[in-house]
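#data-curation
PF: Archiving a pair of folding outputs for the training set. Convention for this channel: one message per protein, sequence first, structure tokens after, nothing in between. First:
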Amino acid sequence: QVQLQESGPGLVKPSQTLSLTCIVSGGSITTNYIYWNWIRQPPGKGLEWIGYINYSGTTYYSPSLKSRISISRDTTKNQFTLQLTSVTPEDTAVYYCARVPPVPGFYLDFWGQGTQVTVSS
């Protein structure tokens, strides 16, 4: 059973860089054709897809956020990291990491429990 666990600071000041890590267990992040995603949900709003890093290290970001996003990985620790620069209160959200399985279609099958991030001075 694959498990994902987000970790990071719960409070970030405006203009700072948010860094979140997703630790994966029960499977390798380098397994072929698996995509590792970040998603967020602002308070009172729907889910917003942020971006992914895949099994080969290729990344793809939401066009609306790509100027501020970087997703990287550490294969030795089996984890991947989101960095979001120049945060504002609009970046306040619950942040999730999730997996797209190695099957046809693009859907998320395993999710972390989510971590609340608040941007405030």
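PF: Second:
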Amino acid sequence: QVQLVESGGGLVQAGGSLRLSCVYSARFFTGYTMGWFRQAPGKEREFVAKLFWAGTPYYADSVKGRFTISRDDAKNTVYLQMDSLKPEDTAVYSCAAQSPWRQGNDYEYWGQGTQVTVSS
């Protein structure tokens, strides 16, 4: 069964940290790029970070230097460590998986999302 299951969202004060987790079906997603996206109320979904299967990360400018994406193959989990959080980081964060033959923000599989709220 193809699944992406996120956890770790919550309420945090500005300047604080949260770590999001995304557990994936290991056998199916071998070779896939794993990404994180977010959508704030009234706004379009936006790219946050991605991790190529080979291990190279890539970040949106708005989170560069504050967020870190990583993967633990033993746990079949992708993480998004979020530090120095700002109120504008408030959104529903979703994990996604992209097959090797796709590009850009064209991801085939999505998790259900987890809410992150940053208070000022």
